[in-house]
Amino acid sequence: MARTIAKRWRLLSVEKNWEGLLDPLDIDLRPYIIQYGEKRKSIEVHGICRYSKINYFSRVGLEKSNPFKYRVTKYLYATSSVILPDSFMIKSLSRDAWCKESNWIGYVAVATDEGKSKLGRRDILIAWQGTIQDVEWIKDFQVKNLLEVYKDEETSITVTRHSLGASLATLSTVDIVVNGPQVGSNEFGKLFSSLENLWVLRISNKRDIVPTYPLLYTEVGEEMMMDSDKSVYLKKPGTFQSWHNLEIYLHLVAGNQGSGGGDFKLEVDRDVALANKRIEGLKEYCIPVSCWVEKNKGMVQKDDGCWELMDHEDDGF
Which of its termini does the chain have fewer beta carbons within 10 Å around, N or C? Predict the structure, then answer.
């Protein structure tokens, strides 16, 4: 399948704006979407990423049996001193935070040689982790540097994000091309539609209300609608949390059969246990609820037998 993706990557990513590929979902597009959705998995602690860049993908479980290999080149942080309600993610409340006004919000990665052979080109990936206000990230010089390094190769830039940060992903794709106005405005929609070599695929769950807000904002890109009610593996009707959960979304990508009404069938070998990774999404399959936890919650036993909290790996700060 990866070999087919390498040959079809332009069609799966850009050409014809996914015409004829979404309903029903193309067999190669399923794992293609899933691998990008998985890339925004993260573990944050005290405003920084729990894992070092070199270990990131192995620590979050994306190395084994995954042909689409990347390496992280830079972590992205956001800083802000704007006075906003406490409900906004601005400042870390932890005494151990490495910076009280900074939060880890994602990373830039590039496909390895092995990943390039499976993807069909050298892909530069920007994965956003959260929603922030005043973004002081890389002003795209990191991306430009990578494009310069691989200037003699066929390259692409992919931006991925789930939930509210998807707005940030949409903004950053435009910002790479031109500094655009506020996301969601009519002016933004016109600007987005006028740009060449820029495509957005929005994936929605019928029961998930988050993609419908704010009500007066302009939607951009192509939408692929799915329905969690059709999965035979998930609890019915579910909850607001499960309807919006990323692992549930990727589960639906693996088995959704489109608007034709076909029975849910897993077309991609994706473990259903992941639907219980952080929530109670599954019916009775003997999978523990919220099963993904850090070993000993970050406590590590030293040689003298004492225990010490080591909740993140040093990464040259």
Answer: C
